Known about the structure:
Distance between the termini: 28 Å
Oligomer: single chain
CATH topology: TIM Barrel
Structural class: alpha/beta
Shape: globular
Strand order of the largest sheet: 7-6-5-4-3-2-1-8
Strand content: 15-25%
CATH architecture: Alpha-Beta Barrel
Number of helices: 9
Amino acid sequence: MAEKIAAAQGVEFATNLARVRERIERAARRSGRRPGEITLVAVSKTFPAEAIRAAYAAGLRDFGENRVQEMSEKRAKLGDLDATWHFIGHLQSNKAKLAAELADRIDSVDSLGLAQKLDAATAETRLKVLVEIHLGGEATKSGVREADLPALAEGVAALPNLDLRGLMAVPPYSDDPEQVRPYFRRLRELRDALSHQLGRPLPTLSMGMSHDFEVAIEEGSTEVRVGTALFGARPPKAD
Length: 239
């Protein structure tokens, strides 16, 4: 019975993945881009390790988690997978060392203090990081303010063990993706200005989720973070 359930889930995931890839391809073509320019990060937070293994078997290689402990538990079960692990949630400074050990990329750096702790915890290879920008003024969202971005980026870029690759943002939610387009456009403008300021390329723009990633791609996203469109509804939280 368990094997039949797993097989059914695998078929469902493969169908979802095909739909997402088709959406990515259409959006890329509309904006004169190649679909291969866009990295699909499967947001696997709250889903079990078995779901990640099935996604890997279907061809995905990038996975996003937002809790250090959950990432630790899953990596212990999935150590045989040659996957790229993105930490995409708000990261507390006291968990920076463990996050640097577990994640291949930290996509949510929002303070120089956090960056310095990640730098100190990184030894053998430079850790790829993104700076998260707070767009929309929502109190529940993390990220650095636009006004503080230039100074933070300068500080991060100066750290020897970190490789600043670009920017990430989670704009305000809207059922109408067109309402979110200005935020995506603004993030691209901030990235371009920052690249000029630093005198170096910042190739990564991580923006766009299940409901709005087509618009994000049209505005220049190179990395979309997709969860429910791939895995389905998230499991209910335990009491």
